[in-house]
Amino acid sequence: MTADVQTAPSADGGLRLRELKKRFADVEAVRGVDLDLPSGKLVSFLGPSGCGKTTLLRMIAGLERPTEGRIFLGGEDITDRPAHRRDIGMVFQTLALFPHLSVAGNIGYAMRIRGVAKEQIRRRVEELLGLVSLEGLGDRRVSQLSGGQRQRVATARALALEPRLFLLDEPLSALDANLREQLQVELRLLQQKLGITTIMVTHDQREAMTMSDLVVVMRDGRVEQVGEALDVYRRPATAFVARFVGSSNLLRGTAVASDRLRLGDHDVRVGGTALTVGAEVTVSLRPEEAHLRLDERAADGDNVLSGTVVFMRDLGELFECYVDVGLGDPVIVAGSPRERIDVRPGDRTSVAFAPDACVVVEEPS
Amino acid sequence: MRALRLVVTVIVVGFLLGPLLVVAVVSINENRYMDFPPQGFSLEWYGQMFADPAWRAAIVRSLIIATASATLAVSIALPLAYALRSYRIRLAPLLYALGILPFMLPPIISALGAQIFWNATNHIGRIENVIVAHAVFFSTLPLVTISLAMEAMDPHLPEAARTMGADQRTTFRTITLPLLIPSMVTGFAAAFVLSLNEYIIAFLVAGFSVETLPIKIFNSLRYGFTPTIAAVSVAFILIAATVFTLFAVFGNLLRFLGADPAVLERAERGR
Amino acid sequence: MSERSTPDARGWGVLAYPVAMLAVFFLGPFLIMLATSFYHRIPGGFYEPAFELDNWKRLGSDLFVDRAMFSIRVSLLAGIVGIVVAFPFTYFLTSMRRRWQVTLLVVVLSALSLSEVIIGFTWSVILGRAAGISNILVWLGLMDESEAYAPGFWAVLLGLVAIAFPYCVLAIYPSLSRLDREVTEAAQTLGASPWRTFWTVVVPVTRPTIVAGFLLVFVFTLGSYLISAILGRPEHWTLSVFISDQASFNANVPFAAAMALFLTVVSLVIVAIVLWFERRATARARGN
Q1: Cβ distance A295 to A350 under 8 Å?
Q2: How far apart are the first and last CA of chain C?
Q3: Phi first, then psi: what are they for A267, rounded to 5°?
């Protein structure tokens, strides 16, 4: 799947990045990125701070000049085109609403500087206010708005001229958790309604999974993995992706057969990938794929690791149990509190999981 | 500690305001001599300020110089502050230092330099000499206020304008400039008030032909005290207090003076 | 991580005007002044281009050394008194509510912006015989006969402190207002009295600022002109008065230029020291 996305000739209206690099005085922020992004979809650049995702977005916007590489939009090379002639709409992390203009002044700015007739601007602003459910607030000052309203104004402002590319740089980071979840859904519905090609930068994997068609996971200025959100979650390509997207137990061992791995004192079966005997292998096991067992018997061909409970927590929506199975880091088991098995720290228990739940990931040594 | 705080504050305020109060009292003295306690009450000397042609001319001259030089000072400071912040310029620290230096050095140096300069150009004793000398000397003040405003401005604002199709000139006209206006006003006001009060530069550049208010006061002092001097002084004090009060009401005075915004917020809540 | 580009033609165009103004009307005069300091003086108020060191040699004369030493001494003294009073005042100021801070700072700024001529004049009134403190004391029955305290050395010093004080406050205010109050609160939870906290925490932490503020005020008072002219006798005149006197009444511009350059060098050295201290202060604020 990953490979499909990267090689698909989705250039019609889409965005192509070729060998893109950006060096600042003493940092190499982006170290060679090749991507083909389909038109009409929402793509997330996901990664920790400093991974180069914002720099990559700013190069696409024309706010930063690439040190090397080209950018194509709809087959056209736009690398040397300045930001104000790129036909984009962008929402900034700080929102960057103009404090000296009213809500309508902000939304109508792009039209005003192009000399569009007043009446036409007014009508379009009304329309956009309706689009983001802010009817009647056009005359408000920006400082009189709530956080969510400000976010909506920034969105409407960026969409005013129906740009070819809609760019979002951590657009919801200023909001508190509940409002953020609500606006994630709103923004996604809006994007689907307009069918506009959208790129969003985020460090929040829930946000990326809620909103995106495609997720680009970045690390240290490079693309780590590209794929559909759920696919990236289920089949992380590297240990980094496994850890950054969701939480994961990383089990390191030596392959003893094409489907068997030696982990300390344990042997586990690994589904899917054929292993090279003797190789050092890391597998990712999602906590929700593992289950607690009171007895040590393997059922249905599951792997079983026995150990001691070191920590328990019940968060209401899920419970987590940390089990020391003698591999250094404890293995984390997660599940619905309804299925919770009553164990306490110090109890002996077993962790069971299916061979298919073990995903072999690359781990740079 | 609270008692000590009160004592220190009262002493300092007394030290700063005491002399001004005495002068204010003297200025309403009916008698034409300096008397304390004052004999009767009269606003005659305030009227004298405008009735006497010499005083009136000095007032008008000083106001012209202060207005023109403060305007010129802002016109020098604005492009300098904008360019130093908007572009990557290797010489930026040097250019900024050039803008700060006139005000950092003792005014006698600017004063003598300007005197020699205008002597050399054979353009002596003109009011515009004083205006230019004041403008350069006080351009530091708007340079500092505008630079601080540039620094405090969200750098994403001009970028947002650019993504919406504004070129550099449009961005400056529609976004940057409107947002810099408060800092330009405060810089103008500071330069205006200080120009109004400046003596030595005005004196050396054109003191014998262009008699500004401070020069007029000093010259009058040489011939002995008149209550008009007291009245003029009180008027000056009121102008300065008014300007800085407006500054405090419309601008963020504490922030301008270098207070930490987070700390201010705590002071706001009353600690 | 925003990147600024090097200036294009328009960028240089924007810079050209202010830089030209400062170059022509500040650097230009400065260089002409430098040249003039080597010129030959013609008695009667004129000077002609020449290259002679006479004016610079006169900087070694007793008269000049005497003026320079007096200026430096009285400015140092005024700076010390100003800072010593301004520090506790500013410390208290920053602990006040915002409204009071603003009010007091408006008073300080108004005092700062007042012409030296007015401050000199008000102090000459207050220290004078006719309507001054001694009159108030007589009026209150505390003194038999009024007495004049100006002109004189102490009047000059007092006047210099008066003009320097607002600058002292403004120099110390930023760093005291940024001083993390939790640090002093931590000291107090460790058992230090407010007085001990002030001496063992506040003063040491802000020492670089105190020194930098003091030096700036020193430069400022060194440049003062009217205070000593109004409140002092000729033997209390500072360098600025002496320079301006040479430039206007004695009509010896080349010598005045040499003295002004000497003053520039002294001031620049002090400013350089200030910058060095400030760098140290920033380093300290960053926690090292």
Answers
A1: yes
A2: 25
A3: -115, 130
Average pLDDT over residues C135-156: 70
CB distance from A94 to chain B under 8 Å?
yes
Query: In a 3-state reduction of DSSP, which class is residue A78?
Result: coil
pTM score, two decimals?
0.84
CA angle A174, A216, A273 (to 5 degrees): 135
| CA pseudo-torsion sign C173, C178, C183, C189 | positive
Decide: A113 and B164 in contact? Cβ < 8 Å: yes
Does the interface predicted TM-score (ipTM) exceed 0.90? Answer: no
Which residue has tokens 């961005």? B171
Burial B27-48 (b: 16+ CB within 10 A, else e): bbbeeeebbbebeeebebbbeb
Report yes or no: A215 and A226 within 8 Å, Cβ to Cβ: yes
- Residue A162 has a CB neighbour count (10 Å cut-off) of 11
Confidence at A310, pLDDT banded by 50, 70, 90: very high
Distance CA(A227)–CA(C107), nearest Å, equals: 65
Give residue B4's identity as a one-letter amino acid code: L
Calpha distance A186→C230 (Å, rounded):
74
Q: How confident is the model over C246-269, as a mean pLDDT?
A: 86
Distances (CA, A) of C158 to A250, A335, B264, C152, C237: 76, 79, 33, 10, 14
> Do A184 and A1 form a contact (C-beta atoms < 8 A)?
no
Q: For residue C3, give the chain A residue with the closest CA.
A: A64
**Chain B residues inside the 8 Å CB shell of A113:** 161, 164-166, 170, 174
Between chain A and chain B, the number of residue pairs with CB atoms below 8 A apart is 64
C8 pLDDT above the threshold of 60 = yes
Residue numbers in B near A153 (CB within 8 A): none
What does the alpha-carbon distance between residue A179 and residue A197 come to, in Å, rounded to a whole number? 24
- Give the pLDDT confidence score for residue B261 in this predicted structure: 59
What are C72's two structure tokens? 């430096």
Of the pLDDT bands very low, low, confident and very high (cuts 50, 70, 90), residue A177 is confident
In chain A, which residues have their Cβ closer than 8 Å to the Cβ of C5? 65
**B82/B200 Cα distance (integer angstroms):** 31
List C-alpha distances in Å: B143 to B74, B75, B83, C279: 7, 10, 12, 21
Q: Which residues of A fall within a CB distance of 8 Å from C1?
A: 24, 27, 29, 54-55
Distance from CA of C170 to the nearest CA of A (A): 30
**Which element (helix H / strand E) includes A302?**
none
Question: Distance from A158 to chain B by nearest Cα, in Å?
Answer: 7
Choose among B110, B73, B69: nearest CA to B187. Answer: B73
Mean pLDDT, chain B, rounded, equals 84
Cβ–Cβ gap C3/A64 under 8 Å:
yes
Bigger pLDDT: A96 vs C284:
A96
Q: Is 90 exceeded by the pLDDT of residue A240?
A: yes
CA geometry: angle B105, B209, B48, nearest 5 deg:
100
Q: Which residues pair with A91 in a beta bridge?
A: A168
CA triple B116-C118-C102, angle to 5 deg: 110
CA atoms within a 13 Å half-sphere pointing along the CA-CB vector of A157: 33
- Residue B218: pLDDT over 80: yes
- Is residue C157 within 8 Å of C81, Cβ to Cβ? yes
Lowest mean pLDDT among B17-31, C125-139, C157-171, C245-259: C125-139
pLDDT band at C130 (very low <50, low <70, confident <90, very high): low
A·C CB contacts under 8 A: 10
pLDDT the model gives residue A56:
95
Q: Tell me what the mean pLDDT of segment A309-322 comes to.
A: 90
A278: amino acid identity, one letter: G
Flag the least confident range among A225-234, C88-97, C188-197, C239-248: C188-197
Instruction: Please report how many Cα atoms fall inside a 13 Å half-sphere around the Cα of residue C23, on the Cβ side.
Output: 9
Q: What is the pLDDT of residue B31?
A: 67
